[in-house]
Write a structure and sequence with these properties.
Distance between the termini: 2 Å
Number of strands: 9
Order of helices and strands: EEEHHEHHHEEEEHE
Structural class: alpha/beta
Shape: globular
Length: about 180
């Protein structure tokens, strides 16, 4: 699963869940900090996150493993390293990525689905077809490889890279699904 602000979860199968999440994030950001309106907006956002997590795990009985990016240092330390702008840090803090990953992991445990994480380094800049890494490959929500010309949604391309990284990495090299398909989120 590739986690994002425009679509909460993008799967390697091409499906996207939580495409309405950006509106809910903006609603929370517009409200005065600590107001009743902000509390209602946060509850609405968390309810939507819960619905998306349940919907992904309930895709079917053949779901065997969920692989996500190991997101960290996106909040307060991002300012020190200048990794993210203030607006992006505020958005990420608003929709609470830790809550999202926690709820997804909880749903996986309840439904006996394996939950794994991989490094997120360059997943959104790497071509899922040829493996070419270039910052210019991604332009907003569109991905177009500078080398082979492959074009796709940037989040779906990243989710395919996450799945590939799991399957070829130290934990996924010998992984064989017991029942059915592997979905990358």
């Amino acid at each position: 699963i590739d986690t994002g602000i425009n679509a909460l979860a993008s799967l390697s199968t091409g499906q996207q869940f939580g495409t309405d999440i950006k509106d809910k994030i903006e609603r929370v950001k517009r409200c005065k900090h600590g107001s009743n309106g902000q509390l209602r907006a946060k509850r609405s956002l968390r309810q939507r996150i819960d619905e998306v997590a349940k919907g992904i795990v309930a895709l079917g009985g053949d779901l065997d493993v969920v692989v996500v990016e190991q997101l960290k240092n996106l909040g307060k330390n991002g300012k020190l390293r200048r990794r993210l702008s203030k607006n992006i840090r505020r958005s990420i803090g608003t929709w609470n990525w830790k809550y999202w990953l926690g709820r997804l992991e909880q749903q996986c445990e309840r439904n006996r689905v394996s939950f794994r994480t991989v490094s997120p380094c360059y997943t959104s800049q790497t071509c899922s077809r040829c493996g070419h890494v270039d910052r210019g490959n991604r332009d907003g929500e569109m991905f177009k490889c500078q080398k082979c010309g492959h074009a796709d949604n940037a989040d779906i391309n990243a989710s395919q890279n996450i799945l590939g990284r799991f399957l070829t990495g130290p934990y996924g090299a010998g992984y064989k699904p017991m029942v059915g398909k592997i979905y990358q989120l």
